[in-house]
Amino acid sequence: MNDQQIIEMYWNRDEQAIRSTADKYGSYCYAIAFGILHNEEDSKESVNDTYMNAWNRMPPDRPAVLKNFLGRLTRWISVDRWRKKTAGKRGGGELPQVLEELSECISKDGDPVGETEKKLLDETVGAFVKGLGDTEQRVFLSRYWYAESVKEIANRFCFSESKVKSMLMRTRKKLHERLVKEGLL
User: Fold this and answer.
1) Listed residues 30, 53, 86: the one ending a domain
2) Is the pTM of this model over 0.70?
């Protein structure tokens, strides 16, 4: 079943839309949630919440790319769940470090988490990421979209950890320069 058919089912309030979404994008959404939460039960709940959010948002929303729409919902829900679970204590996993790294090039106030979420959705960041080379783009997204550890990225790309750290640092610097140039910082 193609994405437009699934979206049409949502608009027609056909409950089969959720089953079709789960069949086609369940693994994708789970990978995003687990990369942030590192907990099977919480990740499954985030994915289920994604389906409910998609149901509630269509209509009126009609996403151009269903996969991106679901990925964005899953990420927001998972980050929110992570924040609630780690409120008042230092959280585990990669997300705190990922947000801290990005805050160095994006944040100009004292709320890097909130600013990072807003700025990541900005068209300028999207255009910046699309303009990166293939490997640089995949490494950047692995770290800052999927919240993978440097070690996981290094293993997948057959790079040393220091090479991954260096690539990420250079890319963050380029992103910061682009945001300053465009007046967003």
Assistant:
1) 86
2) no
Q: What is the Cα–Cα distance from 86 to 83, expressed in whole angstroms?
A: 5
pLDDT digits (tens, 9 = 90+) for 99-126: 677 766 655 555 555 555 454 445 777 8
Task: State the residue range of the domain holding 73.
Answer: 3-86
Verify that 81 and 108 share a domain, yes or no. no
Q: What is the CA 21 to chain-centroid distance, rounded?
A: 18
Instruction: Indicate if 114 and 79 belong to the same structural domain.
Output: no
**Please, what is the angle between helix 112-120 and helix 66-86, to 10°?**
180
List, for residues 1-34, the tens digit of each pLDDT value.
Answer: 899 999 999 999 999 999 999 999 999 999 999 9
Q: Which candidate, 92, 147, 138, places its Cα nearest to that of 117?
A: 147
The closest of 88, 84, 58 to 70, measured between CA atoms, is 58
